[in-house]
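thought: fold this chain, then report.
action: predict
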Amino acid sequence: MAIIWNTFLLFLKMADEFSRPPHNRKLPIPAAYSWESLTEKRGAELEVHYTALLRELSQAKGVLGQIFFKSQNKIQDPAKLYKLIDMIGKEQWSTMGADVKGKIYEGLLEKNAEDTKSGAGQYFTPRALIRAMVACVRPQPLKTIADPACGTGGFFLAAYDFIANPANYSLTKEQKEFLKHKTCYGNEIVAATRRMALMNLFLHNIGDFESDSFISPTDALIADTGLRVDYVLANPPFGKKSSMTFTNDQGEQDSEDLTYNRQDFWVTTSNKQLNFVQHIRTMLKSNGHAAVVLPDNVLFEGGAGETVRKKLMETTSLHTILRLPTGVFTSRASRPMYCSSTIIRQQKHPGRKRSGYTTSGPTFTSP
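observation:
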């Protein structure tokens, strides 16, 4: 997890650059805890100051406080801390092309995902897969996008890039403002992952410190919030069952299966993927589109899975099932998992029979 903590320094440096001409963005970072304050110190004084900086910024209001919430200095060697600050400080990150910055930051996220015991499938979706799914859905300007398990925000970034690409759309000022502030809505319950998502989106110029965060820390499956969106792009967490961790009477960490009892769900189950599929269907507007990564068993198993599958066929239009190669979400230590990327479209008239596939985008079927 050390790479996560290193991103604090990169974030502070880029925030400092954005506060200067020609950007002149007003950032609520006190001068005493700015990037410059780090470059002025050495040795033990630097280590003490950096620890204090993290503590103070974690108490800030708004998105800034959420980014630095419970942040800690994991670089205990002052010499290494100084060297890292010096290396980051030599670059002008804001003058790099968006694609270069994106590759550098996304590289940090991918490397961190490889370093975690749970593997990249925990919250890092391969960007080639994300771009393929976005290309199939082809999100439009002035439309809303949600990801109920958004991880580090990869789907939001790909959708943003697709809409902002002049080859796809010529955006008006109104459309640009909507894209920046009103397009994305997400949930991420893992604090460290949500922190990286907030950094990632801000550094890609999505949202700002003054507005409310559009990534909620709450469990998206708990209840229907009433949010209805035009698109849902998601790779829900892998794992057969939903569970809740708690402290038992002996003071030990324990867990139990978690079943969501929601009136808008077709079936009550502890199966995590089936719950996300049902929740995603609820989130869609009457003409909404969704692209979701799912393990193959969700598409073909019986019981609750069969009920959900039948309801999906009755109430939505299945557009694409893209069978993914083995190992896309597999770390070296874990067993292979077969997955598919499934794209559905909400029907305006549920129950109406549809023949064949729609053809507005490339169509794939599983073999």
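thought: worth noting. The chain has a mean pLDDT of 80.
final: tokens above.
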